[in-house]
Specification:
The chain is an alpha/beta fold. About 45% of the residues lie in helices and about 20% in strands. Helix 1 crosses helix 10, helix 1 packs parallel to helix 13 and helix 8 runs parallel beside helix 9. The structure holds 1,4-dihydronicotinamide adenine dinucleotide and magnesium ion. This is 3-isopropylmalate dehydrogenase.
């Protein structure tokens, strides 16, 4: 199979994890006789430095001409004092909007061999396997107005949480479709006791549910959901929620698996051009030290092979290789709890070796 992959490493450890993920993809290429063409693009702080724009037009073009996009992470202290429109994170919001990547899938799956890396008790974590479906192109992060304002003679600030019915419907349909391939349970998370946007969200969820009689729909308030994720994460199959809630809940949920460095994600559009990225950021605190956990990025590449290219066997092979290496006791620093650990590169070599043995 011949495929073009747009690579947007971005900043900080984004670059480190994408570099090694490409190595893993090259191993897949060889092993399964595919041809992957890699096209690099600038995004984030690096793009600002080189072009003055966190998402240059050429990058969007590179993505549009590719079969899938693989992104590292953006941001860092260097650009922290930049005005909002010149922040690296703007590049991320912009690419989601440009490619209409409205559905962010974040699978949370516990590895048996990592039960001791989670701060939760093993009996809570064992068997956890759910997906957070986060709405990605609407809500608070995109609502207008978002500005400083004055009220009663005092400075304030306003952000707007706005969703159209159609935007809510399409994300709920994605969640129900996904649930049909899984345990057929959808938990829709909102704050319907306070927010009007959540009330509309609930109404639409009920309407969509009627079209999926086999799927059980449960509504849960977001504060309760935050608690339930820790107290009984095993109850969930598919969680669907708006942009901000999904952002917060998925970072929280990452700890179930042991580290943010374990969580992959897929951002899906209706055009068929999807983007894959680790959930974590550019981690300036560990940048350049060859200690970042590359597994989130490598598992994101596996999601790409499955969802964008239909390469189920290859995706499964990567996931099994990761499982095997973790099972053999290898840990990156974030998982090692102060014990011995391997570098980003060594972890990747182990995964490549497990793939080659497959
Ligand atoms: P972060 O996700 O970069 O890091 C949070 C903590 O987790 C840090 O202690 C970091 O060392 C650790 N960590 C993250 N990924 C890891 C990995 N693969 N292996 C080992 N440890 C890992 O979030 P933070 O520190 O809040 O943000 C840093 C920068 O990244 C900011 O500029 C932020 O805006 C940006 N960011 C970018 C995202 C993206 O590009 N998708 C997502 C989240 C944050
Ligand atoms: Mg986040």
């Amino acid at each position: 199979m011949k495929k073009t992959i747009a690579l947007l490493p971005g900043d900080g450890i984004g670059r480190e994890v994408i570099e090694v993920t490409v190595d893993v993809l090259k191993t897949i290429e060889e092993h399964y006789h595919h041809q992957f063409q890699f096209q690099y693009g600038l995004i984030g702080g690096d793009a600002i430095d080189q072009t003055g724009n966190p998402l240059p037009k050429e990058t969007i073009e590179t993505c549009r001409q590719a079969d899938a996009v693989l992104l590292g992470a953006v941001g860092g202290p260097k650009w922290e004092s930049n005005p909002v429109f010149l922040r690296p994170e703007r590049g991320l919001l912009a690419i989601r909007k440009e490619l209409d990547l409205f559905a962010n899938l974040r699978p949370i799956k516990a590895f048996d061999s990592l039960l001791d890396s989670s701060p939760l008790k093993p009996e809570y974590v064992r068997g956890v396997d759910f997906v957070i479906v986060r709405e990605l192109t609407g809500g608070l992060y995109f609502g207008k107005p978002s500005e400083r304002t004055t009220q009663d003679g005092e400075e304030g600030a306003v952000d707007t949480l706005f969703y159209k019915r159609s935007e809510i419907k399409r994300i709920l349909v994605s969640a129900f479709e996904l649930a049909m391939t899984r345990k057929k349970q959808v938990t829709s998370v909102d704050k319907a006791n306070v927010l009007e946007s959540s009330r509309l969200w609930r109404e639409v969820a009920e309407e969509v549910a009627k079209e999926y009689p086999e799927v059980t729909l449960k509504h849960m308030l977001v504060d309760n959901a935050a608690m339930q994720l820790i107290s009984s994460p095993n109850q969930f199959d598919v969680i669907v929620t708006e942009n901000l809630f999904g952002d917060i809940l998925s970072d929280e949920a990452s700890m179930i698996t042991g580290s943010l460095g374990m969580l992959p994600s897929a951002s899906l559009s209706s055009s068929g051009l999807h983007l894959y990225e680790p959930v974590h950021g550019s981690a300036p605190d560990i940048e350049g030290k060859n200690v970042a956990n590359p597994i989130a990025a490598i598992l994101s590449a596996a999601m790409m092979l499955r969802h964008s290219f239909g390469l189920e066997e290859e995706a499964g092979a990567i996931e099994n290789a990761v499982k095997h290496v973790l099972g053999s006791g290898k840990r990156t620093a974030d998982l090692a709890k102060g014990g011995p650990y391997v570098s980003t590169k060594l972890m990747t070599e182990e995964i490549k070796a497990a793939l080659a043995d497959d």
